[in-house]
Amino acid sequence: MQKHHLLAAVAGGFVAAAAAMPARAELGDYSFWQTLANLVSPPRADNPVTPAQRTGQYPLRSNPAGFADGFRPGAYGEWQTIQLAPQTGAVCGNGSGYKFFVNRVANTRNTIVYMEGGGACWDYASCTGQTGVRGARNPNGIPDDYMSLMNPGASLVSPFVTRVSPFDGVKTQNWNMVYVPYCTGDIYSGDKVAVYADPGGVNPPLIWHHNGVRNTRAVVAWLKDNLPRPTQMLSTGCSAGGAGSLTNYPALRRDLAPDRGYLINDSGPIFASPVGGNPAQYPSVPLATLIRSVWGLDAPGGPVSYLAANLPLLNTTNLGTLYPALSARFPNDRLGHTHFWKDLNFSGYSYERFYPEIANAPNQAAKEALVHAKWDIDTGRLRTTLDGLVNFGGYFPQYRALNESHCTTIVDFKNGDVQERGLQLKNFIDSVLDGSGAVLDASEANDTADRAKPFNLLYWTIDQLL
Predict the structure, then answer these.
(1) pTM for this one?
(2) Bridging pattern class, strands 176-180 and 99-103
C-alpha cells in the first residue's frame, strides 16, 4: 500500500509540475530532470535561520523541534495549512493561533508572498467586527480550510495566487505561493496588545493583539527553515495586504535574500503624514496620529524604529517617506504602487471617522465628494513622489465598478486601464516583473470612459456577495 501511495503522490506531483511549467524557462526554474527528481525527493531549505537571526530586534523564531506544523514537502500543487507554534510569537488579534498557507511546485525556487487584504481596526467596534462599522478581517481567527474553494475571497482572490486565470497570465502562477492571512487589524505593521472597552458597558473589555510584525517575522522564519531560497521573489497584496507588503519589504527582502526582488503594493498607500502636520495639507494625519499610538508603532524598539534600522533614508516622523527610502535602499529591485483615484474603501477608512463634515454629510453623494477631495490631495502627492523614482513606478487608473473601486489586482486584471495612453493594468505588472529601465508611471485624468463601460455581471455578482 505504501508503494501505491508513493506512486500516486509522484503522479499527482508530475501533473501539478506539468501544469505549472512556464512556456519558457525563468531564472530560478529547475531543469526538466531536476524537476522530476524533486517529485521524489523535494528540495530542502538551503537558507535556514541562523543563530544571529534568532536574536536582536524582532528576531526570527522558528517552530520548536517536533512541532506538527502540517507541512508535507512533497504535496505539490495544493494549498497546505501551516501552523505556527506560540513560541514563534505569532498570534491572531483575538489570541487564537496563527497559521498561513503554502502552495508549492517542483519546478522552481521562485516565490510570491501574498498578504491578504481586509481593513483595519483601532477600537472596540472595529476590532470586534461590529455591524455597520468598517473593521478588520477575520476577528475570530483563521480556520484551517481557509484556502478551500468554499472561501473564494481568499483562494481565488487574484490571478497572482491562482494557477490558471483565463486571459490574465502572470509568471507568479508558476511559482511557489505563500498566502499570509490577515487577522490583526494593523496592516501587518503593529506590535501592541491593546485593551478596548465596550463603549456601551455591556461586554467585558476586548483584549486585542495588534501583532502584525511578529506574525510576518514568524512566517519568514518558517519559509527560511522549510523552502529553498527564492531566486525571484514578489511581495504583494491588496488593501491592508498592499500596505503590509510595503512596510515588511525591507526585512522580507533581507532575510529571504532573493537574487531579484519585486514589490507591488495594490491599494494600500502609506500617504505622507508628517507628525504635527496640517490635515488640510496632509489629510491622512489624523489617521496616522491615531494608529501610531494604538498599534504601538512608535514604542521604543518597536515597528518604526525597526523600519528605520533597515531603511537609512526613512524619515520616522513621516511614514510617507517609505517610498523613496525603499527605492534608494534597493536600487536594483523593481517596485510598484497602484490604486484607483475613485477608491471609496481605503479612503473611507482614512477619513470618514476623522472628519465630522464627512461623517455628518447630508447624503451619500456629498460624503463621496468630500472623501474624494481628500483622497485626491494624498494621491496627487504620492503620484508626484513616484514620478521622481526610477525603480518605483506608480499606476493610477480612475474607476472600476467593483468593490468601491478598491484594489486593482483582485478578481482579474481587467478594467484597470489608463485609456488615454492605451495602457492596461497588465502593462504595469509586466513592467515591474519583466521590464527593464524605468518602471512604468501612468495616471488617468478622469473617470468618464470608465463609467461608460458596459455592465459587468461578474463584478455585480461579487459585489452582492461582499
Answers:
(1) 0.94
(2) antiparallel
Q: What is the mean pLDDT of the chain?
A: 93
Looking at the fold, whether 157 and 211 belong to one and the same domain comes out as: yes
Residues 186 and 316 occupy one common structural domain = no
pLDDT band, residue 78 (cuts 50/70/90): very high
- Total tally of structural domains belonging to the chain: 2
DSSP, collapsed to helix, strand or coil, labels residue 347 as helix
Range of the domain at 306: 269-277+302-423+436-466
- How far are the Cα atoms of 21, 130, 226, 434 from residue 153, in angstroms, in the given order? 26, 20, 27, 27
Query: In terms of DSSP bridges, do strands 111-115 and 232-238 run parallel, antiparallel, or are they unpaired?
Result: parallel
Are residues 221 and 209 both part of a single domain? yes
Sheet of 232-238: strand order equals 80-83, 99-103, 176-180, 111-115, 232-238, 260-266, 334-338, 392-396, 442-443
Task: Write out the DSSP string of 372-429.
Answer: HHHHHHHHHHHHHHHHT-TTEEEEE----TTGGG--SSSS-STT--BGGGTB-HHHHH
The pair phi, psi for residue 373, each rounded to 5°, is -65, -40
* Cell reading at 35: 524537476
What confidence tier does 130 reach under pLDDT thresholds 50, 70, 90?
confident
- pLDDT band for position 181 (50/70/90)? very high
